[in-house]
Amino acid sequence: MIKNVNKIGVLTSGGDSPGMNACIRAVIRTGIHNGKEMFGIMRGYTGMVEDDIIAMESRSVANIIQRGGTILKTSRCMEFFEPEGRKKAYENLKKHGIDGLIIIGGDGSFRGAQIFSKEYDIPCIGLPGTIDKDIAGTDFTIGFDTAVNTAVEAIDKIRDTAEAHDRLFVIEVMGRDAGYIALHSGIATGAENILIPERKTEIENIIAQLAEKERRQKLVNLIVVAEGEEFGGGNEVAKFIKARLPLLEIRVCILGHIQRGGAPSCMDRLIASRMGYHAVESLVEGRHNVFVGIVNNKINYIPLDEAIKKKQRISEEWLKIVKILAT
Ligand code: ADP
User: Fold this and answer.
1) 319 pLDDT tier (thresholds 50, 70, 90)
2) Residue whose CA is closest, atom 22 of ligand 1?
């Protein structure tokens, strides 16, 4: 039986990503188009637990499609890990009559939604909002394209100065558990080495390559490192290389939070709009407790139960390409 949903709450949770605003806009406007009452829940699950919930109209999401961050704000909510916190959250939703939830966030937020939807009779739809692109079942996540383009722009600039001085640069990009930003930005900027958490760092090969370059006095070399790489990120990799090749001049650049901010790319605005629209349509049609992804340009619905078990894998094809093109 299809459970009729009349009042829908939307929230952004966990790490923020560019395009979340475009997604909120799509959700609110599609909901209103379907005759639903729409609510914004502030600061992720914290707003549910603390009853920080506001009614939203079409106008509430005007002029935000181009803005980074999230107008609903986001947070990590410790209370939501506990049954008492989730009970409070449920009671607050009931108070407002909210009977459907749309959660824009990463795999942690999906885990929260999955547990909540099992305990309480509130259908939940997830939307993958994360710069890490580490969620299986979708070719895109909202924010990845913008983040990786920010990284590419920065690395291109570093390449200019590296070339001018014939210098070795170690550049750290975001990705504690996932190497997608490092992999994509590294390939797109022609980095000589790309180090990611999913693969063992072949440091001896890198040292041998650098020793050879040192001998030829051709030292321009960019090493793009994901934060969660085996050695523990850019500083650690640089330290290790310096200890082995003390004459090398190494510069480290940690790109950090600039990768999260900024205006979303056209691609992120489009996928955020498309996914947001389908999230509401799903709730209305009675497809519950799934997240909305895109695979081969088609909308893909993955049960939250499954989503939290799998991680997006790094493609072997890309790894092969990196090896051939970077030599
Ligand atoms: P992301 O969604 O970006 O992966 P987090 O992993 O920090 O971010 O998760 C966001 C929030 O989701 C957490 O702060 C918590 O409120 C909720 N959450 C995550 N895992 C669980 C869980 N196992 N049980 C209940 N809530 C959870």
Assistant:
1) confident
2) 112
User: What's the confidence (pLDDT) of residue 220?
Assistant: 81
**Domain tally, the chain:** 2
Same domain, yes or no: 156 and 126? no
Judge contact between 192 and 222, C-beta under 8 A. yes
Span between the terminal Cα atoms of the chain, in Å: 59
Reported as a single tens digit per residue, the pLDDT across 20-67 is 999 999 999 999 999 999 999 999 999 999 999 999 999 999 999 999
Same domain, 28 and 127: yes
- The set of catalytic residues is 132
| For helices 20-33 and 266-285, angle between their N-to-C axes, nearest 10 degrees | 40
Q: Is residue 292 part of a domain?
A: yes
Alpha-carbon radius of gyration of the chain: 22
Edge-to-edge strand order for the sheet containing 221-226? 193-195, 221-226, 168-173, 250-254
CA atoms of 271 and 250, how far apart (whole Å):
39
In a domain, residue 323? The reply is no
| pLDDT, tens digit, 9 for 90 and up, residues 134-169 | 999 999 999 999 999 999 999 999 999 999 988 899
Residue 321, in any domain of the structure: no
Alpha-carbon dihedral 105, 108, 109, 110, rounded to 10 degrees = 100
Burial (CB count within 10 angstroms: exposed 0-12, middle 13-18, buried 19+), residue 214: middle
How many beta carbons lie within 10 A of that of residue 216, not counting itself?
Answer: 7
Residue from 46, 50, 81, 117 to probe ligand 1 pocket by mutation (most atoms less than 8 Å from CB): 81
- 273 is in which domain, residue-wise? 7-142+264-309
Hey, whose CA ends up nearest to atom 19 of ligand 1?
A: 108
* Residue 2 pLDDT class (50, 70, 90 cuts): low
How does strand 168-173 pair with strand 250-254? parallel
Taking CA atoms, 21 is separated from 26, 53, 141, 238, 261, in Å, by: 9, 17, 14, 37, 12
Residues 202 and 131 in one domain: no
State the distance from the centre of ligand 1 to the C-alpha of 13, rounded, in angstroms: 8
Look at residue 322 and tell me if it is in a domain. Answer: no
